[in-house]
Amino acid sequence: MSERGTNPARVALLILAALATFIFVMGCGSDDDSEQASSDDALQELGEGEGEVNLVAWAGYVEDGSTDPKVDWVSDFEKETGCEVNVKIGNTSDEMVQLMRTGQYDSVSASGDATTRLIEGGDVDPVNTDLIPNYEDVYDALKDQEFNSVDGQMYGVPHGRGSNLLMYDPDEVKPAPNSWDVVFDNADQYSGKVTAYDNPIYIADAALYLREHQPDLGIEDPYELDQEQFDAAIELLKQQKEHVGEYWSDYTKEIQAFANGDSSVGTTWQVIANLLNADGSKEEVVLPEEGATGWSDTWMISSEAENPNCAYMWMDHIISPEANAAVAEWFGEAPSNEKACALTADKEHCDVYHADDEEFFSQIEFWKTPVSDCGDDRGEECKTYDEWVQGWNEVKG
Amino acid sequence: MEAGVATPVQRRSAGRRLADLFHGRPRLQAGALLAGPVGWLVIGYLGSLAVLLVTSFWSLGELSGEIEQTFTFENFEDVVSTDVYRSVTGRTVAIAALVTLTDIVLAFPLAFYMAKVAGPRMRGLLVVAVLMPLWSSYLVKVFAWRGILSQEGAFNWLVDPLGIEGPGYGMVAIWLVMSYIWLPFMIIPIYAGLERIPDTLLSASEDMGAKPSTTFRRVIVPLVFPAVVAGSIFTFSLTLGDFISPTLIGGGEQLIGSVVYSNFTADLPFAAAFATVPIVVMIAYLLIARRLGAFQHL
Fold first, then answer.
1. I need a labelling partner for B296 at 20 to 30 A (CA). Which of A34, A81, A214, B280 fits?
2. Cβ atoms within 10 A of the Cβ of B188, count?
3. Residue B293: closest CA among B227, B226, B193, B221
4. Which domain holds residue A112?
């Protein structure tokens, strides 16, 4: 950058002009791929497998024996169908939605807060359940739900459901907790050792806690929060932050934090506890008395799927009694296929996870995308997801 | 031998013709030479910045969470008016400045030893030693530190007999790790700057009766200052934009990079708007650095 020769002001002006042109060109580009797909887009006939299938999945949903040689429901599928399975782990629903929007993946195991966004954004196609023989064994309570269908047209196949749990190190957390208060009002006992899920959707966990402990707020659905309720939840989370050692969204990070003693108590998935226990760590989990947030997942197919046939075969496979039993047991959730209950290694599995207990699942608040419509007489007063995102940023400070 | 004269004309290869085309046309030569890099700079580099800037003016659809291309200043209003983003910005600039200062203090003596005291063998060894950490991946180094600083890690094991406890994850950890990782980027420019000072100047200063401290203050520091500023551009900007360290060893603390990272999946337009903050900070920093003559040493 010499002072003489070229005038820096002129160079700067040229760069600005180039940027302005670029922005103008970009701005003129139109975008109309945001339309919801119609039922005509569903596959009508199953053809030959394409040789591979690219999946976006939660950790523990697609296991080929590389994590644990005994945990494998992918290898047989690959042998039978000739579809090689490639998997990309999504750590949060936001990440999954974004991955699907790249158009590089065929199928995704989406939770309720991602499914709406994917359907609404036209990123997934309706699913022709006639092509999926195992679909008929899926619990009726999981079919044609608000989060996986539109006007009676399914947009995927139900994978299973479960709840987030409270994990703790029994050496440090005594007595054994039975309430989320160990991570909220009484978090100071374990200051610096508390962990929480690093995602805006975690605000619902605070709201669910407040539903029990501050009834005057009148919280009913932890995803439908008006200003006052939302502020209370944010306030609670800010207090919690004082005692949080670190947040996790990558499940390996939580495993490492518990294994190294950096975290002792906090929200988790059953699979994380399983992985810790398999390594000789003795963390325990509990479903606290306030209930919990949870998920009901759906395998969906991308509207830009390059391997639709393999994706359909995968969707049929993952809800087959054998695979569904294996994944439900490994991840620690209720299977979606009724026949899976007979095939779990632990015969009690379906009872423990309340597979067909609709009353139990009415206590679990499944993840869904917060929208302005409160769904009751409060009208359009509720906080939308982008406000949740901002709220979560504020919590983390 | 008429045929011998005619054949070379017919056998003119493509390369030969190309060379003829460029012969005596300096503008064309320069143009062809620079087309690649300049094209890359404008399309790849400035283009991606432009896309970032454009995105920051858009918003998210409520139900789909998809980007809607309607023009809005809302994202920038959020960045400027929300307390938390101001404090994140302040914290990030502060840590970047602190890391820079730490690296200057650590780098100067080593660079001085390398440039003025050590023999050629020792110098070569030290240069290799300084550059060696750059051979391993940044991510591996941060993960290693995550292990070192963990509750049951090497750091606590080391200081436990003394009855003290390590810093754990948080701002102190970020400061430690960033200072370690970016140190070579400070040592090398200072070393180059010091090496450029002729030894005769130092001898002259001594001959004129200056004490070593005076020589350092009035001869070495002014001459090497632009090099320090050049090094600080690296340490400052690299710390300013980092998102991996705060995520892995920052505990619950956020810096600009980690806010952008955690928002880009959930709210891309906002993340884009916030990502312009370090750009603005860096432009200001570079303008000041230019004033201080740093670019004469790059």
1. B280
2. 21
3. B226
4. 44-162+294-355
- A287 lies in a domain? no
* Chain A residues inside the 8 Å CB shell of B61: 34, 120-121
Which of B252, B263, B290 has its CB closest to that of A246?
A: B252
Question: How would you class B200 by CB atoms within 10 Å of its CB: exposed for 0-12, middle for 13-18, buried for 19 or more?
Answer: exposed
Crossing angle between the packed helical segments B83-112 and B268-291, to the nearest 10 degrees: 40
pLDDT in tens, B225-241: 989 998 999 999 999 99
CB contact under 8 A, A386 and B51: no
| A54 assigned to some structural domain | yes
CA distance A159 to chain B (A): 22
CATH number at residue B238: 1.10.3720.10
Tens digits of residue pLDDT in A113-161: 899 889 988 999 999 999 999 999 999 989 998 889 988 899 999 999 9
Could you tell me if B30 and B147 lie in one domain?
no
Residue in B with minimal Cα distance to A200: B266
The residue segments making up the domain with residue B189 are: 82-297
A267 bridge partner residues = A166
Q: In A, which residues are within 8 Å of B267 by CB distance?
A: 386, 389-390
| Judgement on whether residues B181 and B117 belong to the same structural domain of the protein | yes
Q: pTM for this structure?
A: 0.78
Cβ neighbours of A22 in B, within 8 Å: 46-47, 50
Structure tokens at B202: 């130092």
pLDDT for B3 beyond 60: no
Counted domains in chain A? 2
Supply A283's token pair: 């963390």
DSSP SS3 for B68: strand
- ipTM, interface predicted TM-score of the complex: 0.70
Tell me which amino acid residue A146 is: E
Whole-angstrom distance between the N-terminal and C-terminal Cα of chain A? 39
| Averaged pLDDT of chain B | 88
Pairwise CA distance, residues A269 & A162, whole Å: 9
The helix or strand, by DSSP H or E, that contains position B164, with its residue range, turns out to be none
Q: Do A1 and B53 touch (CB under 8 A)?
A: no
Q: Taking CB atoms and an 8 Å cutoff, what residues of chain B touch A192?
A: 168
The shortest CB-CB distance from A246 to any of B46, B87, B251 is to: B251
- Which of A316-330, A373-387, B87-101 bottoms out in mean pLDDT, i.e. has the lowest? A373-387
Interface test with B, best of A11, A13, A15, A22 (most B CBs within 10 A): A22
Note whether B252 contacts A117, CB cutoff 8 Å.
no
CA–CA dist A162, B36 (Å, integer): 54
Residues B159 and B28 in one domain: no
The reply to whether A386 and A319 lie within a common domain is: no
Give Cα separations from A246 to A184, A242, A273, B250 (angstroms): 15, 10, 18, 8
On whether the CB atoms of residues A26 and B50 are closer than 8 A, the answer is yes
